[in-house]
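Morning!

This is the sequence you dropped in the shared folder:
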Amino acid sequence: MSDKSEFYKKLKKTLKEETKFPTKYLFKFIVPTSDKAIQQVENIFNDGGAVIKKNVSKTGKFTSVSIHVVMKNADTIIEKYLQAEKIEGIISL
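The structure's back. Tokens below.
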């Protein structure tokens, strides 16, 4: 089993054991500062009434993106992470 699939399997188990759904969940990402990358992150969360905050690094090379959004269950959280994983240069925190 790959490290990523093992990570998501553990995350799902932890979320199910420790979280009461629906819940307000915080996603945090770091992306290269570009309109395209930031827009791609925002597009993932467009459908759920998400509150999105962006903060550009001191050097201007990276932008942190924090998203507060209500999630229905562990599977929907993992689905969002998997969608974000496809964005070039993204780091999930």
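Headline: The chain has three helices and four strands.

More detail when I'm at my desk.
O.
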